Amino acid sequence: MGGTTDRYINLFTDFGFKKLFGEEPNKDLLISFLNSLLMGEEYISDLSYLKNERLGKHEGERKAVYDLYCSNEKGEKFIVEIQRVKQEFFKDRSVYYSTFAIQEQALKGQKWNYELKAVYMIAVLDFEFSDEQPHKLHHRVKLIEEETKAVFYDKLSFVYLEIPKFDKSLEELSNDYEKWLYAFKHLHRLREMPKKLEVGIF
C-alpha cells in the first residue's frame, strides 16, 4: 500500500502502479486506461508486456528503465511512466526514453526499408510542469510543421497528464477517463469505495 493508513492502493507508488497495471491478470485495466487517454486516436484491443529495461548500444552508455513497456496487437509501442517528484528536465527524459523504442525496431542482418511502428510515450505526473498553460492538464504532443501547424510525423506521440490540476468532484465524473484521473488523485485517501467507481471496468 502507499502508506500505513491507506485502505486503497496509491497509484503514484512504484508498487501500487505496477500492481494495478503491470500484471497479466490486470491487463484489461491498463488497456482501459490507455484507451481513455488516446481518446479515439488509437484503439487497443490487446497488449503484450515487454521487458522494461533498455540497454545502450555500447558498454557504458546510460540505460533506460521504464515503469511499463508494452506492445499492442499492431506492434506499436507504449512506454508508461509515473513521476511523483518534479524533475527539471522531464520532457528531455521522456524524449530520450522514446528513442530506445524507436532504435530497437531496426532489423538486423537483412535489408530494411526503415518503416517504423508508432511509439507512444505516456507520463502520469503528480506535479505541474506546464506553467504556460495553468489550466491544461492533458497534453498530447506530436511533431508538427512550424508554419502550418500540420502534423509532420504521426508515429511519435507524447502524452502528459498533470494530475494535480484535475479538480472535478466525484459527482462530476462523466466517463472512464475522468474516473481514472480521480483514482490517481484520490484513491489512496478514500475510506470507502464510492458507488461511481464500482461500475464498468472499475
Description:
- It is a single chain.
- This protein has a 6-stranded mixed beta sheet with strand order 1-4-5-6-8-7, sandwiched between helices. A two-stranded antiparallel sheet has the order 2-3.
- The model has no long low-confidence stretch (mean pLDDT 86).
- The longest helix has 14 residues, at 90-103.
- Helix content is 22%, strand content 22%.
- By secondary structure, the protein is of the alpha/beta class.
- It has helices spanning 14-21, 27-38, 90-103, 176-186; strands at residues 47-49, 53-54, 64-65, 68-72, 77-83, 119-125, 138-144, 151-162.
Q: What gross morphology would you assign?
A: globular
The sequence of SSEs as H and E is HHEEEEEHEEEH
Straight-line distance between termini: 18 Å
The level of helicity is 10-25%
The secondary structure category is alpha/beta
Mean pLDDT across residues: 86
Percent strand: 15-25%
Count of helical stretches: 4
> Could you list the spans in which at least 5 consecutive residues all have pLDDT below 50?
none
Highlighted features:
202 residues, alpha/beta, six-stranded mixed beta sheet, two-stranded antiparallel sheet, 22% strand
Write the layout of secondary structure elements.
Layout: H1 14-21, H2 27-38, E1 47-49, E2 53-54, E3 64-65, E4 68-72, E5 77-83, H3 90-103, E6 119-125, E7 138-144, E8 151-162, H4 176-186
Parallel strand pairs: 5-6, 6-8
Antiparallel strand pairs: 1-4, 2-3, 4-5, 7-8
